Amino acid sequence: QDLDAMSAEELLPLAQEEGTVTVYSFTSRIAAVEAAFEAAYPGIDMIGYDASSTEQIARLQAEAAAGIATADVIYISDAPVVLTQLLDAGLIEAYVPPRVDGLLSDEFKSPLLSQRLSTKVLMYNEEAHPDGAPVDNLWALTTEDWAGRVIMVDPLQRGDYLDLMVEFVLRADEMAAAYEAHFGAPIELDAGVDNAGLQFITDLFENDLVLVSSTDDVNAAIGSIGQSNPPIGFTSYSDRRDNEDEGWALQVANEVEPSNGIVFPALLALSTNTQNPAAARLAIDFLMGDDSETGGAGFAPFYVAGDWATRSDIAPHPDAVPLEDFIGWSIDPVATAEIRQEIADQILILQ
Amino acid sequence: MASISPSAGQKRRFSLPQGLPLKIGVLIAIGLLIAAPLLRILFETLAPNSISAWNDVVLSPLSRNLLWIPLGNTMILGLGVATGCVLIGGFLAWLVVMTDIPFRRTIGLMATLPFMIPSFATALAWGSLFRNGRVGGQTGFLEGLGLSIPDWLSWGMTPTLIVLTAHYYSLAFTVIAAALATINSDLVEAAQMTGAKRGRIFMGIILPVALPAIVSGASLTFAGAVSNFAAPALLGLPVRMQTMATRLFGMIEIGQSARGYVIAILLIAVSALFLWFGNKIISGRRSYATITGKGGRAKRFTLGTAKYPLFAAAALICLLTTVVPVVILIASSVAPSSSALFSNWTLHYWIGASTPTIAQGQAGVFYNPFIVSATTTTISLGLVVAVTGSILGLMIAFTLARYRTGFLSGTINQLSFLPLLVPGIAFGAAYIALFGAPMGPFPALYGTFALLVIAGTAYLVPFAVQTGRAVIQQVSGDLDESARLTGAGFFRRMTAITVPLASRGIAAGALIIFVKIVRDLSLVVLLFTPTTPVLSVLAYRYASEGFTQFANAITVVILVISIAATLLANRLQTKSQPWLKN
Amino acid sequence: MITISNLTKSFGTFDAVKSVDIEVPQGAFLVLVGPSGCGKSTMLRMLAGLETPTAGTISFAGNTVSDGDRGWTIEPAERNTGLVFQSYALWPHMTVSGNVEWPLKVGKMPAAERKTRVAEVLKLLGIEKLAARYPNEISGGQQQRVAIARMIAPRPGILLFDEPLSNLDAKLRVEMRTELLRVHRATGATSIYVTHDQVEAMTMASHVAVLKDGEVEQFGTPQDLVAEPRTAFVATFVGTPPANLIPVAPQGVATTFDGNVLPINLNLSGPAQAMYRPETLGVSAEPTPKSLALEFAEASPVAGRIMITGTKGDMRLTAVVDSAPKFTPGDTVHFTVPETPDALFAPNGERMP
Amino acid sequence: MITISNLTKSFGTFDAVKSVDIEVPQGAFLVLVGPSGCGKSTMLRMLAGLETPTAGTISFAGNTVSDGDRGWTIEPAERNTGLVFQSYALWPHMTVSGNVEWPLKVGKMPAAERKTRVAEVLKLLGIEKLAARYPNEISGGQQQRVAIARMIAPRPGILLFDEPLSNLDAKLRVEMRTELLRVHRATGATSIYVTHDQVEAMTMASHVAVLKDGEVEQFGTPQDLVAEPRTAFVATFVGTPPANLIPVAPQGVATTFDGNVLPINLNLSGPAQAMYRPETLGVSAEPTPKSLALEFAEASPVAGRIMITGTKGDMRLTAVVDSAPKFTPGDTVHFTVPETPDALFAPNGERMP
Ligand SMILES: Nc1ncnc2c1ncn2[C@@H]1O[C@H](COP(=O)(O)OP(=O)(O)OP(=O)(O)O)[C@@H](O)[C@H]1O
Ligand SMILES: Nc1ncnc2c1ncn2[C@@H]1O[C@H](COP(=O)(O)OP(=O)(O)OP(=O)(O)O)[C@@H](O)[C@H]1O
Ligand SMILES: [Fe+3]
Ligand SMILES: [Mg+2]
Ligand SMILES: [Mg+2]
Question: Closest Cα of chain C to B565: distance in Å?
Fold first, then answer.
């Protein structure tokens, strides 16, 4: 019978027969999910493997080479890499639980199921700038005012930042328009630079962009309170939730031309060689949340300010800008994957 | 027993040169454990869809930033750190082992610690003193005093060099101290008789007779420095300084692993060159036999008036490289805000019950249900790998020390060093691919403790080889020969003669392995089934969620385990070498 | 029986032992003597199986144990030999009794027997009080005795000694050599013994081999060697004190002795070396017709007599006389030469009939 | 001048050297002799400054250099002494010439001069051909010579030798002692020399100190010691061969010698030990009225005579005779005792007037 078409209730007995399901997860919040899942479906043991996207990919590839399969469900970010190295290579396959099929827009269903959305967007220190973001156009970051004071993680060390760079190029036209809006003149491209997005990246790097190695460093640099002239930079909107604990004053710049950054998905997929096909599907179904306002126990760990459920029926977190008001670009993993390496090479030359 | 002749049955004819069977045995072992995974990594880069990576890395417009500049930086770091570490480590080792400096044991313990403190903590410690406003956020203590710290002192090569030296010198210390402990004091006394001053004796006699240890120490610290990611990433990136390690990490991270592996292979090749050179130095006709069959006396240098200045210098080094990072680390596990490490301390992250307002309701590490099981798993893993790694390392070290020349020895030497330079993730992946599936009569090891042990052993055996060899080379050959005459077999001699004499070096190697595997993440995370996670994985989980305090608390737990192991090793040490008592 | 044939050992281009042929009968006590660096220790190490010969073979009772030509050698462990290393090679991490006991443990001797045996050999060597010390806590001579104790404890079939008593005082040395001989006789083991002590060589040996530059100069009983040295080298090497050699050449009916014409007719046909035993030379403060003037070097009472040595250039003469004037360094001593030398050697060192 | 007063060195509870008082005049050549483990090396090490005395002081030319009572000692580096270690202590990582050269480098000798000096001492010790070898590539005796060369090269003011010639052959040893004496005289340095070789002690020493269990038994010129041993121990320790001691006790007008009554009247008032020099004892195969029967131990030609040793229980007698019957082990030898002993010692070892 067609497992893909089965409802959770139909899958349950089959899954219980299988008895276990292994989830590779890029976040440790899987532990909370595990507890909830086992409470919801007694008799099925969920095993959560917690490993970064990169490690998951390495592991899946190595397992495939050895002809073994231990994973049933893959919960992973880094969509562009996942598409090329796992999906195209046939190591994972898409699955959309029929229950949520209608609640997701197409971009979240294919090529892989997106469970929620995260961001890499322009953030500033709201203590130093109580009246709102100090910039209203990305191109301002390339000006003298912000020389040496724009900070982000090295895009050649973190895939999501590379995706951000790629997005600038994919949105070159918007970038060109924003340029004109900011400087009042159409953009002139440097030799060898063939679009406004790349020109932006180039100018940004030339403006003494400060690179660090982790998002937390960016947060601390931008957000630490007590700074008279804090830098500005790209980081996760959801990190704002740590403001109080960490002594930060992070705020998102949501009124920026043409956009403040990217919104990208966390993906759920089936391992192609899963030994527990029913339980795997059941787990994905569970991870997509129940039909309550907040997604219930399965989604609870992910119901945080600054991250958004892909399901249209889960209410936005009250502490954050709702997704529809958010100006970040949603990435297109397929398009991103196509030019990602090329952009990486360009950035490499810039460094 | 008046018969002269061995009966015909006893006769065993060797038409092989001495040592060949041993060499071949060792070669097979490391061929399987080390060469196979490395070759797999190499072949990965030669696959049709990744072969272009070679061109990209070596011969394209990208090469400059992808390879050459990072390579240059890496070599500066490697050589600089190795030099610094050997000097500082050697100096401290001499003080602790050979002189009557006050608080010898304490200094000795402190000097082994920096390696156990994660290098990010050392880098943070540097930042907390010297950080300037370039990146934003909190500035360091000195800028807080109103001093203006230039970029070169805050970021880039200089601080990275210093931090890595402060982190790795303890490796050199451990190896060199083990070697110095075996030097008959009459060699030093003979030098004293010539009228040579302390420094002269140190440079002219002590360091050279400990040359194998120095080469080992230099090799280990070189490898450590060139493969360290945390320090250059934290301190170098803001001024766009890249090393092979940061590049390699980045390439794998952004999905260009073929390029990453090519970089790794090139790093291995370059390092192999240095290693070969180092080995060349110590494999000549020269002997380093300082433990001889004429029991020399064990005596300490009296420092006289220089005692206190030297003590002050040693104490300062230890303080700066251990106490400061440890304080920062502990502070960061009790301070609610990472930007104000010394305010609002709370023990919540240690002993707090679950409060929804903090860290999404995580309970303090002591109440964390995982922590106990993770600690047990971690310690057992550490112990098992330390034992297996030491045994394999001992075999290799013995082979290398006794048969120093020849192609086979060279190969063994190089091979047994390489894992130090391979990124853990690549090594782990190769292991899964090679040994994950059932092989003939052997069951699939994937996901088992056994695979992790085997991989960990192979991955960390270089430490045991380097520390072991340095000491074994100092055991005069006639001690083994006189044991051979008694009819004792190879293993008997090994356990009764070589191991006790080299015990300090072996213990040092085992300790380093223990600390490494307990802290290691990349290999463990890839190979282990984390139903019962180890501590490092736990720390990683917290860190990736942004619960830095928890992560740091676990790091402190790991540090405490490491220190406990050191203390234990020290104890066994003194017990196991009664003839070195003073 | 130990048969050594054509045995050669080279270190790089240097030949430490060159085509040595010796047959040592079962139960014999062979003493190897020879100048420093002549290859004695190398010989012992090859016999022990620690060193593979470059060429030649060694066989024990007819079984080849080392074959340099084919490059193999039987493991030391399987030769039933014991060696006292010149360097002692004590295990620094074991106490004195531990050092002696370990080989017995390896030999699987039962614990009780082992204890007795250890106590026994330590007592034999007079080091029973040091049992609990480590090698670095005892004196050089004590270390040397531990090395001997360790070697003899398991009663090996072939005993190899490399200058085992060199660091002992004269009194102890005399006692020890008696003990070692007793051990040798009690076990009937074949022993090969390297020493520089002439008295040791003469009193202990059933056979002596004199080595020079890796070659055997003469092999025979100790009496033979003293009485009939086959070469000039042997003559100057054995005996207490060894014999003197004076370069001589015919000069009409007289003879030049080291350039001085003395009215002695040796009937030479060409230059030669004349051997005089020390007791045949006389000594006086004044020149005599048949005396040679040398510079006084040293005097020492030996066996109730006085041994007087003089040097002149390379030549060194030693006379043993019942009484002699008192010389001080720098004095001239006149050595009177008897009519007939004890032997004559050709300039190349070979004995003349 | 070296003044040693009340010098004591303890290792834990064991006293290796006990209240030694010696004055060594400037330029003297003091030989230390004594049984294995009696504290000779420890003395030298204290003189060199390598060991701090437990008590007592050492002063060089009036300047205290070690003070055990106050627990301080001047650095070896500042004493201008040189020591040939009993264990050689060659630096394994330097070649032979490197070993010899390093002290000169430390002494800041100019390179050219250094080269000459190294070549010179290597030549002096006959090891010039080994200059480029490492210590593990040369023989034991060669190593010992390197140790000597290294010590004398920088011409230290006080020369300390710890059994420097023990591993050399007799011939070389004779040559070397002449050379060492020459070095000693040429520099006028004070030398302290440990040896077990009686001939060395007799020929080289201006003064001899006999040590026993860490104490000085007798200190004097070599002649004194042989002629007038102050204790029974010294009597049996010096001389080649050393004197014999026989336990004697009065038995009416006769005397028991080791229990046997011999018709010799020694006028004793109680038990004592009679000393006989070897050359005063006779030897015969048949008993005589004044002979003692012992078991034959060994015979060896010495200085044109024969040295015969017999043992009985603990007693060991050595006679030096011009000729003797041929004995084989196990034979009974009869040692004839002369009328008067050369000296008498009380049972506690003290000399009787
Ligand atoms: N560390 C130590 N602990 C205890 N006793 C020691 C120690 N070192 C030396 N001794 C003892 O001190 C005594 C003197 O030793 P020393 O080396 O001076 O003797 P020596 O006269 O040179 O003997 P030898 O002729 O055998 O070399 C010996 O009995 C030795 O056992
Ligand atoms: N590894 C080596 N390389 C070169 N020559 C060596 C090596 N080992 C020993 N020799 C030489 O071989 C010769 C014989 O050495 P061996 O140790 O047998 O001498 P020996 O007769 O025992 O001398 P000694 O009486 O001084 O102990 C020596 O001249 C020595 O220099
Ligand atoms: Fe579970
Ligand atoms: Mg030798
Ligand atoms: Mg001594």
Answer: 24
